[in-house]
Each structure stands twice: as C-alpha cells, then as structure tokens.
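Quick one: structure tokens for this chain, please?
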Amino acid sequence: MEERPVTGQHKLTLTNRKAGSFTGVVDVLSFDLNEILLETELGMLHVKGSNLHVNRLDLDKGEADIDGEVESMDYSQLPGAKKKSGSLLGKLLG
C-alpha cells in the first residue's frame, strides 16, 4: 500500500448536526453507534453522538462522510506530536 503525502490540511463540514463530511482523514481508528474516532492530518477527531454511521471512506483521497445525531466533536493532538509552545526566554536559551 502506497503512503499518501501529508498535506497538513483538514476540512470539516457539518450540516444540521446530522451529516458530516471530512477531508484530511488519515484513518478511522474506531467507530460504533455512539462514537467515531478519526485520525486527521491535524490531529485526532473524536465524534460523539447517537446512531452514527460512516457512510463513505476513501483513504486514498483522505475523505470520509458520516451521518447520525452529532452531540460533540473534540480534537486532540496525535500521539507523539510535540507542541510548538513555550516562552520566548525558553526558546532563546533552548
């Protein structure tokens, strides 16, 4: 399987909290009727709700479509990713 180049782009469109369309999807790590966990190019996306379904998944294009009742969406960093934060003094001395 050929690896897709990372573009660092991700787009999310949610319509009426019932239909979602995503780009920049690297993988679907888990899903059931209440949760979907997507790895995107800009971090992990955790979708919570009810009656959730992954309708379309094209990892070659980095696209996914879902439907169901979306109650919340949370982003987190990818495991092992380093934050680009810190004080100016710390950056100067580091």
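The first helix runs from residue 88 to 93.
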